[in-house]
Amino acid sequence: MHEVRIGVLGPVSASVDGRPVALGGIRQRAVLAVLVAARGRLVPQDVLINDAWDGQSDPTTATLHSYIAGLRKVLEPGRTTGGSAEVLVREGLGYALRLKPDQVDAERFTELAAQGERLVRSGDPDAAAAVLGEALGLWRGPAYHEFAEYAFAVPEAARLHGLRLSAQEDLFTAELARGRHTAVIGDLEKHTAEQPLSERGWELLALALYRSGRQGDALSALRTARRVLAEELGVDPGPSLRRLEVALLEQDSSAAPPVTGPVQPVDLEPASPARRGRRLPLALTGLVGRDEEQARIGALLRENRLVTLTGAGGIGKTRLALEVAHARDDEDGPWLVELADLETPDPELLVADIADVLGFRDATTAERLAQVLGERSTLLLLDNCEHVLSAAASTVAHLLSHCPGLRILATSREPLSVAGEVVYEVGPLPPGAARELFFTRAAAAVPGWVPDTHEIATGEAICQELDGLPLAIELAAAQCRMLAVDQIAQALDDPFAVLVGGPETGPARHRALQTTVEWSHRLLNQPERELFYRLSVFAGGFDLDAATAVGGRPVLSDLTALVRKSLLATVAGSRPRRYRMLQTLKDFARRKADPAVLTAAQASHRSWVLGRAEAAEQLLYGKHARAGMEQTTRDLPEIRAAFTSALLARDSEYALRLAGALHRYWYRWGHIAEGLGWLKAALDICPEGAPGPRARALMGMGALSYLLGDFATAAQASAEAARHAREADDLRSEAGALAYRALFEGLLGKPGSEKIAEGAVELARASQEPWLESETRMVLGMLLRMTGPSDRAREILTRSRDMARACGHRFVQASSAWLLMKSDIDEGRPAEALAAGVTALRVIEEEGDVTGWLAIAHATAAALTLTGHREAGAMLLGVVEEQGSRIGYSPVLMDPVDGPRHARLVRDALSTEDFVRCHEAGRKMSPADMNEYMYRSVTSLGAGADLEAGVEADVRPRP
């Protein structure tokens, strides 16, 4: 594997095996920069486009894919076409960079800066200076230099520049501790001029001047610092600067230069008692999957005085907070204050708990506690604040405003909402860590057990079902003592019955999942509870509009409360903001809710789903088809839930309407089996029903049966659809149903199909829908072509293609081009057929049309073979067969006239050995990879300018 390194501490750059590589234009580099800024997290495709273009334009997904391909080409030069990406990977609908921290200069710098800080604190200035010098040497200019104004880069650049300032001041501290006070004065003067509001910088400059025998200049520097802070911020210097000023005036020994030999970091704190103790319990089991979060929270706590860990019950806030606290080396503390047993939200009782832990028996108010703490530097860990929120918030605010050395790490299912609070939301474990936790705890419950492959897969499914919730996973793993993994998975139909039996030594609320969730539920008021119950009907994530629709009223205030109380989580990076509820919380809400409330919520949910499905369907007939299909793909969990609840409620008309709205999506996206399943279920519970919805559902049945090569069922369904559409006076559906009835009957060899298709064209023209007329003309041309070469067929198909292009109906544009290219093959024009095929494939890929791509690609494989690209033809056939097998679709079955003949042509053009080799290579490629391969191959061998012009004309977005 090649050694890839990426730099963002300056202009974005990259090297492979030590040699710089060209990253392309500004937009391609922006794509890389967005992925680097995500720090290894998956970036959804729409977020990547929005961030990289910074809202300046509306690029197509094909444009993004071309930049991704360009980056992969330079970052993974040895990757074969179609081979798995290892650096810039695609996962689901997003992309991520898979690099080690030391391969990105920003991550390397962050690691070195933290290491240098630890060395300074531990009293090893020589090593600290070396490490910090290396860290600062990584900088080549401002972070994300050319993208400094882009929204995605602003927070990450601010973080890095803040760390750079801290690292620079840590380096000055190390140099002073090494006795190099005179040598750093010039650099410190420059530093305070550039960072005039950094009190630490002024402190280090004054100390360097004093140790160089320039007491007057040192005091003058402190006066300048006081003046700058007053003029710019309206504040006085902090305690550390004030103490230094006193030390310099009194020529205190704490400000004197270090003695020779091993030295300690500068410490101007007043003498304090010996370490008072660490009131933290020791963990009995290892922490799994939280190393990165532990480091991130530790860094936040070093930079901020109040950090609150929030998250759902059982997510692991307390355990993570304890690990963060254990990793600190405070001279005083950390001190754990457990608030779970505090039943009354009384500030005096809360103060008494804190004072008792600290050993201050007479501190009964926040004011008195603050006086006793004074400037003492310590860390308090306040655990489980959510049920005493107001008391905790007021006490924390008072202590922090009066005790400059105090830091607080809190855990709560809801933020404290105190000024200066940094909230860190603890999320579920990622799949790998969840699996490790399950099997680690299971191994402890059943010593000597070694899970087999099936048990590992089942364990992973259990973790997924439990949403990566650590408490739930640990409770499930503990059941391995009594139950097999398969039994545990089956028992999760009632998770609250099986997820019990937590350790007796742990908190009572952690001994059963239901107890943990009840703890959060008790904190809700009645409107919040009702919304919590209603939102449990969502199968996946949802936004504010969806929540309002299902809630049946304005819900922003209560929705905010549910997020604050960790019963909902926000989906990071979503625009508009989306929310999700853990499955265990949904199960709890559905058990608690009044059945009438759930029934009403499900009806509202169905109405919302249908509205979105019907709106998305209308997009499929124009230039926004891709957006319509992507919206429906995102909504699939909700669509399936709506279908299920409609069938259970015997709401037959709804099921028919929803099926009718989705049949185009199922056809084009390749959801054949699922679509047929829902259609049959909807038609079965409604043997008659309203003719309009029934007609559209039957059209879907016909279309999907056609994809499977079941032309008899397709013809019958389409004929019934036409009859019902006529009853409903639905001209549009009648025209479409008649056209496809003609096609399917033509494929069965029935006479008169052309005349039926001509009638469909007339109806489509009367509807004044250009997309429909283009589609019925496409069907008529297809029927005419089936009888042999025909000038009339070519004329009609050309008209269909041009009409479709004009109105943006790319499905028909590509389908008519497919039929014309097959005519070119039959008439001995393979070069023209190939150019048309490659162009049509680019068009249909831009649409996201799966079955259309496979059908056109199958014919294009024959065109490749006939133009001498025999191996490419076999590879393309391999892609088609592999991708088709995944969705249960074969162009050979759907196209019995040309499909088998084209497949034989490709196979017969190569020896068996060569065909198998190329075919297998194709099976490992994605459609996008094959598109790029064909386009490069064909243009490099001369279909040249005409092909490029055709692709540009057909793919370029139209106004």
Description:
- Helix 15 (389-402) links the parallel strand 9 (378-383) and strand 10.
- This protein is globular.
- Strands 8-9-10-7-11 form a 5-stranded parallel sheet, with helices on both faces.
- Helices cover 62% and strands 6% of the residues.
- Helix 30 packs antiparallel against helix 31.
- Residues 260-278 and 941-959 have low confidence and may be disordered.
- The chain is mainly alpha-helical.
Features:
959 residues, mainly alpha, 5-stranded parallel beta sheet, 3-stranded antiparallel beta sheet, 44 helices, 14 strands, 62% helix, globular, disordered C terminus
> Number of helical runs?
44
Q: In which range does the helix fraction lie? A: 55-70%
In spatial order, strands of the major sheet run: 8-9-10-7-11
Shape: globular
Low-confidence stretches: 260-278, 941-959
Q: Average the pLDDT over all residues and give the rounded result.
A: 86
Radius of gyration: 34 Å
**Major sheet characteristics:** 5 strands, parallel
The N- to C-terminal Cα distance equals: 45 Å
Extended strand count: 14
- Structural class, by secondary structure, is mainly alpha
Oligomer: single chain
Strand content: 5-15%
Topology:
Layout: E1 4-7, E2 13-16, E3 19-20, H1 26-37, E4 43-44, H2 45-53, H3 61-75, E5 88-91, E6 94-97, H4 105-122, H5 125-136, H6 153-177, H7 185-194, H8 199-211, H9 215-233, H10 239-249, H11 291-303, E7 306-310, H12 317-327, E8 335-338, H13 347-358, H14 366-373, E9 378-383, H15 389-402, E10 406-411, E11 422-425, H16 431-445, H17 453-465, H18 470-478, H19 485-491, H20 495-498, H21 513-521, H22 526-535, E12 542-543, H23 544-551, H24 556-564, E13 569-571, E14 578-580, H25 583-592, H26 595-619, H27 625-648, H28 652-669, H29 672-684, H30 691-707, H31 711-727, H32 731-747, H33 753-767, H34 770-786, H35 791-807, H36 810-826, H37 830-847, H38 850-866, H39 870-887, H40 891-894, H41 899-908, H42 912-923, H43 927-940, H44 944-955
Parallel strand pairs: 7-10, 7-11, 8-9, 9-10
Antiparallel strand pairs: 1-2, 2-3, 4-6, 5-6, 12-14, 13-14
